[in-house]
């Protein structure tokens, strides 16, 4: 394919191998002599380990080793990237008393107490996966069950079971931001006040490809090697592995497979199994593989969301917003793996609206559940859900039009850059114009006729709107190593890690345009610490935003070097050399050379000064700070069957502003996937825990439904491209915009459908039973 420009909707390079079964996932990696691991997991949410008897397990056929915490005492705690309690570029979070947030150890095998059902207490390795699983069932653990707490609000109540002695009252963080006095004064003079108490339920990533990892030990180099499908980046995983093993960084190597079957954030933390596998590989002298089965994933994967919120909105008589105050209680689970979702959420409680005052209390509570970490658009969907539900409640209680109430309170373009009342400064955006364009595209004005038509068919039809903004950040360091070869190739190594975002395509598109080379000549590589020296992986919409900056810097350096080479070979001044269409030309003449000819000249080195000899290559390694602010507006229409409570999404219209879109087709695909992912939580997904025992009740796809393609209409998804002032190329992240407003817009539409019956709110998930129950209760008055 010839040169591809930025902004062209070029087809993905990745697709051919994926649709023809030629992808390489973790389970496709086969190392000679591989043994297989199985893990003994706690059946209790909270229990003391009295003793572990491995005698019978060791005698089982094919068993090579059975180990407990007593054998792995030399292994260290996982160094989780929790997100600083003072993190988030514009706003810092610390405890209200000025102390730092608390963190807890997370060792690979538990020796004394388990704190969630699914925590590992023993590891069995055998010749086959089946033999390892059979032997694991023979490990006998003497348990002393302890009181457990899983429900988010229950975990902070007086008398709740405490998980860690170093975390009193289960509170790892208790912070507040904003102006409490100004907020209280605004509420005191408000003509209208609305309150919402809701819970954004816990969900899990349910990746298409469950976790698989292989540990190996290279005797020649004395290095521990981990093959794992993760998204946080190989350099970070390498730091984690070296910490857990207690060995120097240079004695570890991380390799991620070419393809990963889904991530969305819940792969972006180090798992206990990942430290045990290479450790065991050294002991056995052979690789050790672990394949997580779906039921095991439900109890051992990191999970997401789980936020209990009490929120209020104050308005004047004309509907102008005066203040917002909220209490955000985030359930971080049994180990403090991350505070990011709480941090991100409290910063955005006022969203895109001009709210003069706000006060937010944020608490991170521990419970007997798997740890939660950032899950697609961490913290932002929860915040947008709360503010957008508050606005709908205010409209209905105060008699305001829902669209007009939003329009009059949206931040004006001339107010940009805008500092929100908790201290985050948004870059730029025209929120009102985008919302009104979306509403028009969705034919909001024609909705009453569609509602009447549905009514004649016995259905309840509703429409909802939600606006959003994000605060994307991510690990600030990114690196690009780019080499132009005389064979007509451009090879690049990036530190970010693709997990389905089309990096092989979009990054190649940047280089194809900036170096004016054929698109197919560019190869992008990732995922091996032998070639990747720095970078932060994929999370918080950072990949394209940061990669584009380092790729641009490296390609600019290559062009500058190429001009010097051309000047020397063509006997001209460097200032007279121009670069266009892949050629260096002496201005005003037809004398020139191609980029690849310049690379060949550099490789030969004849007649060139020493600094220009060798490869035509460049490296850009940068620390890139600050936040990015994608925004957009979504409109959703639903039909509810009052006899069954079933909700059908019948129309969905959205416009997402991603700044400059490198590949619009890829961004639209991200939007489609994000919408469905958010709707999954709004409508059906829920990691249910038994309140008495803490046992997970959703352990398979029989009891954890996920959305399917045939449950959705064709989306009318469009892009706006107002260049971001926060990025040198005008780029905003585009991978999370579909998810961020989805919870709010879905519930707004469903409540609108039920509003004629008097229903004012529904908590998620809006399952058929929950909707049907609300209808029955409303009919009974």
Account of the 3D structure:
The chain is α+β, with helices and mostly antiparallel strands. Strands 3-5-1-12-9-10-11 form a seven-stranded mixed beta sheet, with helices on both faces. The chain has a five-stranded mixed beta sheet with strand order 7-15-14-13-8. The longest helix is centred in the last third of the chain and has 28 residues, at 543-570.
Structural class: alpha+beta
Biggest sheet, in brief?
7 strands, mixed
* Strand content range: 15-25%
Contiguous helical run count: 18
Helix content: 25-40%
Major beta sheet, strand line-up: 3-5-1-12-9-10-11
Computed CA radius of gyration, to the nearest angstrom: 28 Å
Secondary structure: elements and pairs:
Blueprint: H1 15-19, E1 35-41, E2 47-53, H2 55-58, E3 63-68, E4 113-114, E5 120-126, H3 129-136, E6 140-145, E7 171-178, H4 180-188, E8 192-204, E9 212-218, E10 223-228, H5 234-245, E11 252-255, H6 272-284, E12 288-291, H7 294-300, E13 303-315, E14 321-333, H8 340-347, E15 357-366, H9 380-398, H10 402-409, E16 418-419, E17 425-426, H11 431-441, H12 447-456, E18 460-469, E19 477-485, E20 489-494, H13 503-515, E21 522-525, H14 543-570, E22 577-580, E23 583-586, E24 592-594, H15 595-604, E25 616-623, E26 631-640, E27 647-657, H16 664-683, E28 716-720, H17 742-754, H18 768-779
Helix pairs in contact: 8-9, 9-17, 10-11, 13-14, 14-15, 16-17
């Amino acid at each position: 394919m010839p040169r591809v420009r930025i902004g062209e909707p070029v087809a993905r390079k990745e697709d051919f191998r994926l649709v023809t079964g030629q992808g390489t996932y973790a389970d496709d990696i086969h190392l000679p002599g591989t043994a297989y691991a199985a893990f003994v997991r706690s059946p209790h949410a909270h229990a003391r380990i009295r003793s572990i008897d491995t005698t019978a397990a060791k005698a089982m056929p094919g068993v090579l080793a059975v180990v407990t915490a007593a054998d792995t005492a030399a292994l260290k705690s996982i160094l989780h990237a929790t997100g600083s309690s003072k993190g988030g570029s514009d706003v810092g979070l610390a405890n209200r008393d000025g102390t730092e947030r608390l963190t807890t150890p997370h060792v690979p095998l538990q020796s004394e107490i388990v704190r969630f059902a699914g925590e590992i207490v023993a590891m069995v390795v055998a010749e086959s996966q089946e033999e390892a699983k059979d032997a694991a069932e023979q490990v006998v653990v003497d348990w002393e069950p302890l009181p457990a707490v899983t429900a988010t609000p229950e975990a902070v109540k007086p008398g709740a079971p405490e998980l860690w002695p170093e975390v009193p009252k289960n509170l790892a963080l208790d912070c507040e931001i904003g102006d409490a006095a100004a907020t209280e004064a605004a509420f005191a003079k408000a003509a209208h006040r609305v309150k919402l108490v809701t819970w954004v339920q816990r969900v899990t990533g349910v990746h298409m490809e469950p976790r698989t990892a292989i540990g190996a030990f290279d005797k020649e180099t004395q290095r521990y090697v981990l093959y794992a499908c993760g998204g946080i980046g190989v350099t970070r995983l390498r730091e984690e592995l070296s910490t857990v093993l207690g060995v120097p960084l240079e004695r570890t190597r991380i390799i991620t497979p070419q393809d990963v079957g889904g991530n969305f954030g819940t792969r972006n933390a180090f798992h206990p199994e990942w430290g045990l596998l290479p450790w065991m590989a050294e002991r056995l002298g052979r690789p050790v593989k672990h394949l997580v089965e779906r039921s095991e994933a439900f109890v051992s994967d990191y999970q997401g969301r789980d936020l209990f919120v009490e929120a209020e909105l104050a308005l004047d008589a004309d509907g102008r917003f005066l203040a917002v105050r909220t209490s955000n209680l985030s359930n971080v689970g049994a180990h403090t793996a991350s505070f990011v979702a709480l941090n991100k959420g409290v910063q955005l409680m006022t969203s895109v609206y001009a709210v003069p005052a706000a006060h937010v209390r944020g608490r991170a509570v521990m419970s007997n559940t798997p740890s939660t970490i950032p899950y697609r658009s961490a913290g932002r969907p929860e915040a947008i859900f709360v503010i957008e539900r508050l606005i709908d409640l205010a409209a209905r209680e105060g008699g305001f039009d829902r669209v007009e109430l939003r329009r009059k309170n949206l931040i004006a373009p001339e107010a940009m850059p805008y500092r929100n009342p908790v201290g985050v400064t948004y870059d730029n955006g025209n929120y009102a114009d985008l919302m009104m364009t979306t509403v028009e595209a969705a034919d909001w004005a024609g909705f009453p006729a569609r509602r009447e038509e549905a009514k004649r068919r016995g259905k309840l039809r509703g429409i909802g709107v939600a606006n959003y903004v994000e605060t994307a950040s991510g690990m600030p360091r990114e690196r690009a190593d780019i080499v132009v070869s005389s064979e007509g190739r451009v090879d690049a190594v990036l530190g970010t890690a693709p997990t389905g975002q089309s990096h092989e395509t979009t990054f190649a598109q940047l280089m194809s345009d900036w170096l004016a080379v054929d698109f197919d000549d560019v190869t992008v590589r990732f995922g091996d610490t032998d070639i990747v020296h720095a970078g932060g992986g994929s999370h918080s919409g950072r990949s394209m935003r940061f990669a584009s900056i380092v790729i641009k810097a490296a390609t600019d350096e290559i062009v500058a070097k190429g001009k010097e080479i051309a000047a020397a070979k063509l006997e001209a001044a460097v200032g007279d050399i121009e670069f266009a269409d892949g050629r260096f030309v002496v201005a005003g003449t037809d004398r020139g050379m191609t980029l690849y000819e310049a690379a060949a000249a550099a490789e030969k080195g004849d007649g060139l000064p020493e600094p220009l000899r060798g490869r035509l290559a460049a490296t850009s390694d940068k620390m890139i700070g600050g936040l990015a602010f994608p925004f957009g507006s979504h409109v959703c229409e639903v039909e509810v069957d009052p006899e069954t409570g079933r909700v059908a999404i019948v129309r969905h219209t959205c416009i997402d502003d991603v700044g400059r879109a490198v590949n619009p087709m890829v961004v639209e695909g991200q939007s489609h996937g994000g919408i469905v992912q958010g709707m999954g939580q709004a409508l059906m997904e829920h990691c249910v825990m038994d309140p008495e025992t803490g046992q997970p009740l959703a352990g398979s796809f029989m009891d954890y439904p996920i959305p399917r393609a045939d449950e959705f209409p064709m989306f009318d998804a469009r892009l706006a491209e107002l260049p971001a002032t926060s990025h040198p190329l005008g780029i905003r992240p585009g991978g999370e915009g579909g998810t961020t407003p989805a919870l709010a817009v879905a519930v707004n539409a469903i409540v609108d459908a039920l509003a004629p019956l008097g229903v004012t709110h529904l908590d998620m998930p809006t399952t058929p039973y929950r909707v049907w129950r609300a209808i029955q209760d409303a009919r009974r008055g």
